[in-house]
Specification:
Blueprint lengths: L8 E4 L16 H13 L4 E3 L8 H8 L8 E6 L16 H15 L4 E6 L8 H13 L3 E7 L3 H14 L6 E5 L11 H7 L3 E5 L31 H10 L2 H13 L5 H11 L10 E4 L4 H11 L6 H14 L9
Parallel strand pairs: 1-2, 1-8, 2-3, 3-4, 4-5, 5-6, 6-7, 7-8
Protein name: NADP-dependent oxidoreductase domain-containing protein
GO molecular function: oxidoreductase activity
Keywords: Oxidoreductase
Length: 334
């Protein structure tokens, strides 16, 4: 079956993995299998994961789910955990750590290579030249077809590309970053930079971690937020998401959208905006990453992606909302 979406969809497997690990929402293999079945039934086949997700268990689950036999395309990432986040080991973007991290990913995935391997975030304690030479070496070993970057500043993207050109190394082909109807900070500088260097953009957070749904309101208390969700204040991830979205400007924007949404759902509006009204373009290889903690949730989201353009008051509400948020919106980079 061919996909019916204006832009290709990638499944974000961050929520797959070992029970009790931060970020994990689906820990039963049969539930994960059902979610992948649904994803593929809509004509999509690309999966995004990371060595960091679920303490490495996201990759292990995908191996157990026979991703290769399913003819899925696999993307994974190496995160330089320079601050020892979530109590996990400190790592850097030095040649030894990168080689070890990629080998661990391939072992966990049960593969000798992946299609796309990312540097998940910058590590400014290691010279770019050293990091990029290591990427080129790993690419020459055939361990990944393409490589990408995530959470870098636009000037760093330019520096990376110029260093790669000067040294005859492969350039990054994909940038993965945060982007949604009320978080558009990539548009001013980053996207033009990516277009100049012919780098595709893969958008994560199209629903703002569930914030662009009907779940959250200005008076939602901490105890009313589902445990383990993106806005669970007891988790590091929850604290990060609250810092990004939980403020007066964003709630005012959300309330403005709700006043004009008519019979449409907030999540539907957000996903249709990504498909038809964002600055993403199929001809540039841009894609949208969507996760899910349940099969029903994924069915709804994939169906919403297939719907047409928005009109009138709803689009106006999103533009007004972005005008409210743009001055206080968080950074697109780490």
């Amino acid at each position: 079956m061919s996909p019916k979406t204006a832009l290709p969809i990638v499944f974000g497997a961050m929520t797959f993995g070992r029970e009790g690990e931060e970020q994990v929402r689906t820990s039963k293999l049969e539930d994960c299998a059902s979610i992948l079945d649904t994803f593929q039934s809509y004509g999509h086949n690309e999966i995004d994961t990371s060595r960091f997700y679920g303490g490495g268990s996201s990759e292990e689950y995908l191996k157990a789910l026979d991703w290769q036999k399913r003819n899925l395309t696999m993307d994974t990432k190496f995160f330089p955990n320079v601050r020892g986040m979530m109590g996990r080991p400190v790592t850097h973007l030095d040649p030894s750590s990168m080689s070890s991290g990629l080998s661990s990913s391939l072992s966990a995935l049960g593969s000798t290579s992946v299609d796309l391997w990312y540097l998940h975030a910058p590590d400014r304690s290691v010279p770019l030249q050293e990091t990029l030479a290591a990427v080129a070496d790993l690419h020459a070993q055939g361990k990944f077809t393409r490589w990408g970057i995530s959470n870098y500043m636009s000037w760093e993207v330019a520096a990376i590309c110029e260093l790669c050109r000067a040294n005859g190394w492969p350039l990054p082909q994909v940038y993965q970053g945060v982007y949604n109807a009320l978080h558009r900070t990539i548009e001013a500088e980053l996207l033009p930079c990516l277009r100049y260097y012919d780098i595709s953009f893969y958008a994560y957070n199209p629903l703002a971690g569930g914030w662009l749904t009907d779940r959250y309101h200005r008076n939602t208390s901490e105890k009313d937020v589902e445990a383990g969700s993106r806005f669970d204040v007891n988790k590091m991830q929850g604290q990060m998401y609250r810092q990004r979205y939980w403020n007066d400007a964003f709630f005012s924007a959300l309330e403005g959208l709700r006043a004009k949404k008519g019979d449409l759902r907030e999540g539907e509006i957000a996903l249709r905006w990504m498909m038809h009204h964002s600055q993403l373009k199929k001809e540039f290889g841009d894609k949208v990453i969507i996760g899910a903690s349940s099969n029903a949730q994924l069915v709804q989201n994939l169906g919403d992606f297939e719907k047409g353009k928005l009109e009138g008051d709803v689009l106006e509400a999103l533009e007004e909302g972005w005008a409210l948020c743009r001055g206080i919106t968080g950074k697109y980079f780490h």
